[in-house]
Amino acid sequence: MAANFAPAAQAQTPAHTPPQPPEVVETPIVIGQSFALPSAIMGAAREINVWLPPGYDQSRERYPILYVLDGGQDQDFHHISGIAQLGTIVGTTRDVIVVGVASVDRRNELALPTEDPELIARYPTQGQSDRFRRFLSEEVQPFINARYRTSGETALMGESLAGLFVVETFLKEPQMFDAYVAVSPSLWWDGGRLARQAGAHLRDHSGDPRTLILTLGDEGEMMQAPMDVLTANLRQYALPNEHWSFTPRPTETHATIYHGAALDAFRQLYAVDPQ
């Protein structure tokens, strides 16, 4: 009688398990702080962005403040704070706190009132730059000075309509800041009236030390003509302690001028003292 043999069990080969890749750790990049600052003057909370130089938390130093108009996170805050960071890393400029003040309605906030009926019809909310200046002076600057170690040295920077606001502030309220940087200012607004009135405003200045940096690209007669009027008034009426400069940038356009001009302004305003 034949013996019954069960078939030999086939060897079980374990399935190959591929090695698991190491876990990828995701960390957000934080370059600053953003605040929704309540504003009674503007009637709503407004976005204020702040970049602090490396080492701020470990030091007891006080720092100059650069206020950047159109300083929202989707506006000019990142590329201007990037210039400040680079200058700190490579040691070419002094440490500075960058404060970006976001714009919401630029022609309302940055343009002085116009008498041009076409501009009024096109931009019915225009012409509230005085109110925005009060917001900076009475709400933004006190907030920054109370929260951060500021040295008292201040500057205001802006491009295009924000550059127009910078020039207007220098002419009408020069005591608000120590230095002013106006890149491609829209002096054509209201037919160039601000540039024509510059002499009258300059005659009212106290003579305290101020710096005004102006620059303009190859942007046509509409932009160039009022700049020529402004610089003529500055040559005639600026007081000895009002240090101003105008740098033409013929290889730049309105769309390309800002970053390089801002870098040059940093190197001028925040030059490292030679040892």
UniProtKB/TrEMBL annotation:
<protein>
    <submittedName>
        <fullName>Alpha/beta hydrolase</fullName>
    </submittedName>
</protein>
<keyword id="KW-0378">Hydrolase</keyword>
<dbReference type="Pfam" id="PF00756">
    <property type="entry name" value="Esterase"/>
</dbReference>
<dbReference type="InterPro" id="IPR050583">
    <property type="entry name" value="Mycobacterial_A85_antigen"/>
</dbReference>
<feature type="region of interest" description="Disordered">
    <location>
        <begin position="1"/>
        <end position="24"/>
    </location>
</feature>
<dbReference type="GO" id="GO:0016787">
    <property type="term" value="F:hydrolase activity"/>
</dbReference>
<dbReference type="InterPro" id="IPR000801">
    <property type="entry name" value="Esterase-like"/>
</dbReference>
<feature type="compositionally biased region" description="Low complexity">
    <location>
        <begin position="1"/>
        <end position="15"/>
    </location>
</feature>
